[in-house]
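Task card 7
Instruction: Convert sequence to structure tokens.
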Amino acid sequence: MSQNRPGSENDFGGGGSSSAGTGSQAGGGGYSAGTGSSGGGLSTTGGGAATGTAAAPSAGGIADRAKQYGQTVADAASQAKDYISDKASVVGDKLQDLRNVDYAEYANQAKDYARQNPGQALLVAAAAGFVIGLLVRGGRR
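Output:
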């Protein structure tokens, strides 16, 4: 079966049809192996449909390609598993750190900072209040 449409490319990157055996070719970009007007061996031609006996893809080639794809998927899955495990351990460490936090100490540090920098503390509080107000009011629109 031949398909001489743009975009109907085979594994070799060319368009057209593939044939093996004896026959002649004329026209679009096909590949031919065997004897005929294109000569012996594998060659590319200017175009057209090929006539002759079509060769079936070898089962060994498909099996090898399937094994390669399977190995690629297995490698990607292994990398994803390692990445997720690393990130899960980082998140677990952060959660443990949050459990061990003394919030009273943070409150005292914030009070000391506000006493030392009152203008900046007012600006931060105003900005935080504005953002919270937008979030609360945005749900009622």
